[in-house]
Backbone:
């Protein structure tokens, strides 16, 4: 085996090992790293404008952008989380004291069903009242068994959250300051032609911005509207239910309905028809309208993906990696589609070349996505400047290595 081939294979093996080792080190705090990257990407336009106004003072621009993120994102989330913890603690105390009893609520709903329907369901073996009571009681017991250890480990969990939060802010500052140079390094290392790299990275950026901004806007709107109607109807824990609706709204079409739907059924089953009808009408015409109007405009329009793809990829992402999956799922689906579009272009170009037909086709974005993938002129200029800095640094490193080798060569001579 030629020495050069052996060296290349050893280097590739070493490269793979150190990459896997680095990923293993970063995994415990991947959530902090992930959201630092997301926030840096979302607030990059603001940071770019500040750089233009402040004559390329990168440290000052990054600090100001970080302060804006703290005021607009971190502070509201922290306040909401604090209020949510209080609501959840009070709700758990009500469950423990028996004031809130799921078995009684389900029993009232089943008892309110017409006799013929209840008998028919029991004949079909779908459920009996005893089965429902046993299952609900078992579920409540499991919830209590899960929450009790979490309460005991709250000190350790709080420490982990504080460390993760510090890592996120620290990394976010450097991503804001040096993000363009880092992106240029990544582009330089990707073994594709420049047009393909530009298309894939633009698709990556577009999908992340669309999914985060779109889903967060829909979640905030549905959570606020759902919590508002719960508060107006006198339902206890309106903030808790509103936050749960906001989280479940990450599931397109069905999310928030998983909360207000059972509550509306309970109202109707217990004779509170006015509250039940109001909640159903409000849920369908107001909360549902937010999902049907805002999500296609903010998510589907930019990602160029059908609603069913967004739904399946979101559910798959959430089940695989948790809350971060509402970004990772659609991102993987969009990159899958973009990569196969590029592959189809390559095959088409190669087929024309083999057939002897004149071909000036290069790997390029599909026509349907070309407009969406075209970056703004400011971003192109910034990327070009970052590429130039990376190339200059690479030349300086090469010259430094050459300067170190020259004295050694003269000494051997």
Residues:
């Amino acid at each position: 085996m030629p020495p050069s081939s052996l060296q290349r294979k050893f280097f590739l093996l070493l490269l793979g090992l150190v990459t896997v080792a680095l990923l293993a080190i970063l995994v415990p705090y991947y959530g902090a790293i992930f959201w630092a990257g997301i926030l840096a990407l979302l607030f990059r336009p603001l940071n770019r404008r500040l750089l233009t106004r402040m004559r390329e003072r990168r440290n000052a621009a990054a600090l100001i952008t970080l302060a804006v993120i703290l005021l607009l994102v971190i502070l509201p989330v922290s306040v909401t989380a604090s209020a949510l913890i209080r609501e959840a603690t009070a709700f758990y105390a009500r469950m423990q004291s028996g004031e809130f009893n799921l078995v009684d609520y389900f029993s009232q709903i089943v008892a309110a069903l017409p006799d013929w329907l209840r008998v028919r369901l029991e004949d079909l073996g779908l459920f009996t009242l005893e089965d429902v009571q046993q299952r609900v009681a078992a579920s409540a017991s499991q919830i209590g068994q899960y929450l009790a250890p979490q309460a005991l480990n709250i000190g350790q969990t709080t420490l982990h959250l504080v460390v993760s939060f510090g890592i996120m802010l620290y990394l976010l500052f450097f991503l804001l300051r040096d993000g363009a140079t880092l992106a240029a390094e990544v582009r330089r290392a990707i073994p594709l032609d420049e047009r393909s790299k530009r298309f894939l990275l633009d698709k990556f950026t577009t999908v992340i911005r669309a999914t985060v901004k779109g889903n967060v806007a829909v979640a905030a709107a549905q959570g606020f509207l759902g919590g508002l109607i719960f508060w107006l109807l006198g339902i206890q824990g309106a903030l808790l239910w509103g936050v749960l609706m906001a989280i479940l709204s990450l599931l397109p079409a069905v999310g928030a309905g998983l909360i207000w739907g059972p509550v509306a059924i309970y109202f109707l089953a217990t004779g509170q028809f006015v509250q039940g009808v109001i909640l159903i009408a409000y849920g369908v015409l107001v909360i549902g309208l937010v999902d049907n109007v805002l999500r296609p405009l903010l998510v589907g329009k930019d990602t160029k993906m059908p609603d069913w793809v967004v739904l399946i990829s979101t559910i798959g992402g959430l089940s695989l990696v948790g809350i971060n999956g509402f970004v990772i799922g659609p991102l993987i689906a969009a990159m899958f589609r973009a990569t196969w579009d590029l592959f189809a272009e390559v095959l088409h170009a190669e087929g024309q070349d083999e057939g002897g037909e004149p071909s000036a086709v290069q790997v390029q974005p599909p026509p349907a996505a070309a407009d969406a993938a075209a970056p703004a002129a400011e971003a192109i200029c910034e990327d070009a400047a970052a590429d130039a800095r990376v190339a200059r640094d690479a030349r300086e490193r090469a010259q430094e290595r050459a300067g170190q080798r020259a004295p050694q060569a003269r000494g051997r001579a």
